[in-house]
């Protein structure tokens, strides 16, 4: 496993983010998903975030990305949702007729940490520190 690093730390931080269209409207297709991905890739470096994988369904997107300890995840997600909502509605105006009050993304999101050892293995490792073998 290759770890990332900066001047003061070594880390490996993967996140799985799921963003859902408001009221689960089915408005995402291959074309606008590709544009949503482009917007993500444009904004992400400003927050020390790197896209690893992207996929979509008609009403939500799945995003796997790497971050750094100084990445402000909630600020990034808000910036991304705001910019992508504005741009996608401007570039694909037909989407607006399917939205309620022109909201594109749901306010909520799901974000999970990924990678590394299962939590039980980490707990056991921490509990066993200091024990003589």
UniProtKB/TrEMBL annotation:
Domain Transposase IS200-like: 10-129
SUPFAM superfamilies: Transposase IS200-like
One record GO biological process: DNA transposition
Top-rank taxon, per record: Bacteria
SMART domains reported for this sequence: Y1_Tnp
GO molecular function, a single term: transposase activity
InterPro entries found in the cross-reference section: Transposase_17 (IPR002686), Transposase_17_sf (IPR036515)
Protein name: Transposase IS200 like protein
């Amino acid at each position: 496993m290759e770890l990332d690093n900066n001047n003061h730390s070594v880390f490996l931080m993967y996140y799985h983010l799921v963003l859902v269209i408001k009221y689960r409207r089915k408005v995402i297709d291959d074309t606008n998903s590709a544009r949503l991905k482009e917007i993500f890739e444009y904004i992400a470096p400003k927050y020390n975030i790197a896209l690893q994988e992207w996929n979509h369904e008609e009403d939500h997107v799945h995003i796997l990305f790497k971050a750094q300890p100084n990445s402000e995840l909630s600020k990034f997600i808000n910036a991304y949702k705001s910019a992508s909502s504005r741009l996608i509605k401007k570039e694909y105006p037909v989407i607006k007729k399917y939205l309620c009050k022109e909201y594109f993304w749901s306010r909520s999101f799901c974000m999970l940490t990924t990678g590394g050892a299962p939590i039980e293995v980490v707990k056991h490792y921490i509990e066993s520190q200091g024990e003589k073998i």
